[in-house]
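Input record (one chain):
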Amino acid sequence: MKTTWPLQDAKARFSELFSLVCEVGPQRVTRRGKEAIIMITESEYATLSGQKGSFVEFLLSGPRLELDLQRAQDFGRTIEL
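The corresponding structure, as predicted from the sequence alone:
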């Protein structure tokens, strides 16, 4: 399977290149025989660049716990002031 594309081929067959990036993985594009860019998916870019979601997204992505949390009915200890 082709993973390195000359720039002219990449331009002419961009849809195919795009599909391969999504289905197979990163694709390298060269210009004048020298490496120029590597095309990757948005999710791979986010992973590589260290982009993180918001704190709310982090909390919502966690496991759903069914906890029965109830407040105790006592009033604590008696303190003399």
